[in-house]
Amino acid sequence: RYHFTEEELNAVLYGGLRSSQPTGSLHAISGLRVSPASSGAADSSVPLVDRDSLQLPEGLSVMRVAYGDVSQLGVFCTDPIPKGVRFGPFQGKVVNTSEIKTYDDNSLMWEIFEYGRLSHFIDGKGAAGNWMSLVNCARFPDEQNLTAIQCQGEIFYETCKEIFPKQELLVWYGDCYVQFLGIPISLKSMPEGKKPPQHAE
Prior knowledge:
Layout: H1 6-14, E1 17-18, E2 25-26, E3 33-36, E4 60-67, E5 70-77, E6 86-87, E7 93-96, E8 109-114, E9 117-123, E10 136-137, E11 146-151, E12 154-159, E13 170-173, E14 177-180, E15 183-187
Parallel strand pairs: 10-13, 11-13
Antiparallel strand pairs: 1-5, 2-3, 3-4, 4-5, 6-12, 7-9, 8-9, 11-12, 14-15
């Protein structure tokens, strides 16, 4: 039998910990509580970010979000983004599978598959210019507007629908992954002669 606390569950599911004092207004679409990340209302459960080093593309902004008792940063759209726009690659440190420990924080890691098997991870924690590490995971398919795609050993986020101003960017695995209960177990093989989609920012 497994034993874990509600705080540990929140950290795994939402990548954040409880906030004792939520601030800001509720986001109309998702029900998330939203306030600008630069508001100065520091929340010790959310890491401070150096906005200058994020290299955030134009049309996006970083804001603080809270869902229930969980508070963290998120990336929001300020200008419409059409379907099919690709961001990336996801920046980070290569971590071998042998380096992963059971209780390591893997909330900012993406799996990289080679020859149908898990090869290594890309850990976005602390990577300069990695605004993509602030994009939260979608909790259910209807709110997902980005898909994570592996292309030539790197991770990209691609819009799977048009994203409108004030909407949060929310990512989950794309169709290129074989999944079991929503978790990727391998990368689908690409048919011979078919080239991977071209990178466009």
